[in-house]
Request: fold
Amino acid sequence: SAEITMYGDIVESRPRDWWTGKEVDGQYIVCDEFLKDLDKVNSAKSLTIRMNSCGGDAGVSILIHNRLREMQKNGKEISCIVDGVAMSGGSLIMCACDNVKVNASSIIMIHKCWSSLFGGYSADELRSMAASSDAYDKAQASIYHRKTGLDEETILSMMAETTYMSGKEAKEKGFAD
Reply:
């Protein structure tokens, strides 16, 4: 068996200080570092993810989710223990695991995709960005549906409201076991 600790913000690459170019201190779940960790534990029959993340990059979160699902399809038993919070992208990764353990004081949060915009955009560019967000929302809803069995309309409504759940509530709704 093996264990991977996933504490921090989910990022494509380690953040760097704009002025100095040095890496920013902090806890991060970095895409390529996670994939290297996954390779190191590939021979284990079971994997436990220890989660404490407020989320981050949706694309990286979906990639990690899909890699974990692939491992499960190939026979690896994967569990998640939410030590603190599993918010946003953290909840997507958590939902890759068929066995999710939460504490009564754990917090799970789901929401619709959002983006930061700076500058000027045409209506066509804004519609394109909205279409991209809709695609992410549908992908995320499919992840939550697989884990919970809740219908897509219910999940999208929960996401639109930015739903926070205690460990007990997450268990009642099927996000945790």
Notes: The mean pLDDT is 96. The first strand starts at residue 2 and ends at 11. The beta strands are 2-11, 28-30, 46-56, 77-87, 99-102, 107-110, 163-166. The CA atoms of residues 9 and 28 lie 5 Å apart.
